[in-house]
Design a protein that fits this description.
192 residues, alpha/beta, 6-stranded mixed β-sheet, two-stranded antiparallel sheet
Length: 192
């Protein structure tokens, strides 16, 4: 059992609708020890690739993405969910993404200024449920002509369709923690 799985069992809260609340250590209040362990797991899996950028969607994926980018010594780029005045009428990549947890669909955007065909991009996010965030980011990377070096996920809800959709898309997926079930308020992990 890895460090993240232990923290989920200790401090995670299962909410109705297959929602796992990890706000106390991963995506609201952030425990640097959790982030360090997460980054080490991603480095072990993706570290030998020639990654030029790490990308995520605001906001929950920013902490692991920036810490990993620092270790890789490459820029971190995040897709914005709202159009800032600085990106109005600019050339940009965009993709529609539905958030399972929030129940909203957003048009996420990245400026063309920061992503092009010379990049090899690692996509990082805190959760994988139905795969829409990861696939939306992969779509943006592919629009730019860049290569998707892989997708790194902190917590995957393996009982939802995201894992299958990403694999069907031919993308390399690595999830630190794979949850088999959240039934009856109990977290059950996938067997190794």
């Amino acid at each position: 059992m890895n460090y993240l799985e232990k923290r989920i069992l200790e401090d995670g809260i299962v909410k109705p609708g297959n929602v796992l609340k990890v706000d106390s250590f991963l995506n609201h209040q952030i425990d640097p020890m959790v982030m360090e362990e997460v980054v080490n797991e991603f480095l072990n899996y993706f570290g030998d690739r020639k990654i030029t950028k790490v990308i995520t969607i605001e906001a929950s994926g920013i902490a692991p993405a920036i810490m990993l980018a620092a270790k890789l010594k490459v820029p971190m780029l995040f897709a914005k969910k709202t159009e800032p005045s600085t990106l109005k009428n600019e050339n940009r990549y965009e993709s529609e993404v539905h958030s399972y947890t929030k129940g909203v669909t957003s048009n996420v955007i990245i400026s063309k200024e920061y992503l092009d065909e010379t990049d090899s991009v690692l996509i990082i996010d805190d959760f994988l449920a139905n795969g829409q965030a990861a696939l939306g980011l992969a779509d943006i990377v592919q629009q730019s002509g860049a290569e998707v070096a892989g997708i790194g996920i902190c917590i995957e809800k393996s009982f939802q369709k995201g894992h299958e959709l990403i694999k069907e898309a031919g993308l390399d997926l690595f999830s630190i923690c794979r949850i088999k079930s959240l039934e009856d308020g109990e977290v059950q992990f996938m067997e190794e």
